[in-house]
Amino acid sequence: MKQDTAVQMFEDRKIRTYFDEKMEEWYFSVIDVVEVLTDSSNSRNYWFKMKQRVRLEDGIELSTLCRQLKMTASDGKLRATDCANVQTQNLRDHMSEAE
């Protein structure tokens, strides 16, 4: 399986992506998407707190909707991060409700 990664731009912000050729799906870094959608100064903390809140209020584990993939972090190292494909609409719905 070939792994293609790229950085996509959205409103002048970077979103790390991964294309799984076998599954023919794009995956996006949830933390990067959270930053773009919420203008949060600490998107990693926002995502962590949102996962906790949704688990307590709705009984849903948002992490189970995601796939852990290694992506290049800001320090240049590969680090596991939550990623979602384009069909994972629940994440966006919960972000809209959280605001």
In words, what does this structure look like?
Helices cover 35% and strands 35% of the residues. With 99 residues, the chain is of the alpha+beta class. It has one domain. A five-stranded antiparallel β-sheet has the order 1-2-3-5-4. β2 (13-20) and β3 (25-29) form a beta hairpin. α1 crosses α2 (43-58). The protein starts with a strand and ends with a helix.
What's the arrangement of strands in the largest beta sheet?
A: 1-2-3-5-4
Q: What amount of the residues lies in strands?
A: 35-45%
Overall, the morphology is globular
Helical percentage? 25-40%
The strand count comes to 5
| Count of alpha and pi helical runs | 3
Output the structural class: alpha+beta
Return the domain count.
1
Distance between the terminal alpha carbons, to the nearest Å? Answer: 38 Å
Average of the residue pLDDT scores: 82
The Rg value, from CA coordinates, equals 13 Å
Order of helices and strands: EEEHHEEH
Main beta sheet strand tally, sense and closure: 5 strands, antiparallel
State the low-pLDDT regions, or none: none
